[in-house]
Amino acid sequence: MRYYDIAVTPQGSNTPAMHWTSHPNGQQGIADPGAQNVEFDMPVLPYNTPSGGMSLRIEGVSLQQINQSTQLAGMNLTMRGGMAQGLPLATRAANQAGVLVTGQVFQAFGNWIGTDMTLDFVLLPSVYTDDSPGNFILHWPESTPLATALTNMFTTVYPNMPVSIHLGSNLTPAHDCSHTDTTLEGIAAKVYETTTGLFNVKVYITIQSGKILVYDDTYKPAPIPIAFTDMIGQPTWIEANTMQLTTNLRADIQVGSEIQMPQGFQNSAGLIGTQAASMPSSIKYQSAFQNAFQVIALRHVGDFRSSDASAWCTVMNCVTSSAT
């Protein structure tokens, strides 16, 4: 059962100005058969790799909400999503749904064509852009660990956002390496370039699920198992050491997460047995992707009322552990 919960909240308030959900009584409640259709395309990448904004469309909105659309710019938007309880993923859905994205509404505009009323959002995970610059001052003096310098900077720029830092070493420079910038993309690129040049360590900075995450190639969280029934289509290599995998919409997998691919399909439901003569090799019972992979990029894609399984999915690019 597909699930979403979208709240648009003014700055400094905890009361949503607008709210839409497929389950009025929460994720474990009964689904609303008249829930509005939502469409979204939300890429999530480290900030040293610019990806642009995220798009979200809500159909069947009221005329009042369309009239208020211009007032929504600058507000915070939180979208929860995934699969709620119900076939076919009832046993695993509860742990996979959650916060997909938290960001600021960069643009909001309504449209009315015939009998169709829609409300579109352009979202930015970071509240600072070139048009609305921030004051990113990374004070990283000699012999100061990078984690300390980043924590001090983020505490000042994002005082209400939690920070999670996972670095394999202290990364202390032999000279001052302070930087300033107006956007998170800019400061993330400078940190990536500096750590790669000084320590040959790639440090990534991203915002996802309302939290700042900083990690390097040594970050190895507990692997998240991928079941055969989680996958939509077949995983495939898209370049050297990089696999692309599509699953049902997942909020529990984030950039930097480690996933464990299925080890084999011998006991999977739906497996068709044949005579030995028609199966020249038992290797066909095994997946070509059995290792642990680290997620380096995500893309959440949704069309709530589409009957296509790939219209409510998470596409992830992953690298082999040896490539991280």
Describe the structure.
The protein is mainly beta and 324 residues long. The chain folds into 3 domains: 2-124; 136-215, 3-Layer(bab) Sandwich (Phage tail protein beta-alpha-beta fold), CATH 3.55.50; 224-268 and 276-323, Elongation Factor Tu (Ef-tu), domain 3, CATH 2.40.30. Helix content is 11%, strand content 35%. The chain is built from 4 helices and 18 strands. The chain has helices at 63-67, 93-96, 146-157, 184-199; strands at residues 2-9, 18-21, 38-44, 54-59, 76-83, 98-113, 116-124, 136-138, 163-166, 179-181, 204-208, 211-215, 224-225, 236-239, 242-248, 258-260, 292-303, 312-320. The strands form 3 sheets. Strands 1, 2, 3, 4, 5, 6, 7, 13, 14, 15, 16, 17 and 18 form a 13-stranded mixed beta sheet that branches. Strands 9-12-11 form a 3-stranded mixed beta sheet, covered by helices on one side. A two-stranded antiparallel ribbon has the order 8-10. A hairpin with an 8-residue loop joins strand 17 (292-303) and strand 18 (312-320). It starts with a strand and ends with a strand. The relative contact order is 0.15. The model is unreliable at 266-272 (pLDDT under 50).
Largest sheet properties: 13 strands, mixed
Mean pLDDT equals 84
Distance between the termini: 35 Å
Order of helices and strands: EEEEHEHEEEHEEHEEEEEEEE
Oligomer: single chain
**Gyration radius, in Å:** 22 Å
Strand content: 35-45%
Low-pLDDT sequence parts: 266-272
Q: Quick one: overall form?
A: globular
- Count up the domains: 3
Structural class, by secondary structure, is mainly beta
What is the helical fraction, as a range of percent?
Answer: 10-25%
What is the count of β-strands?
18
Number of helices: 4
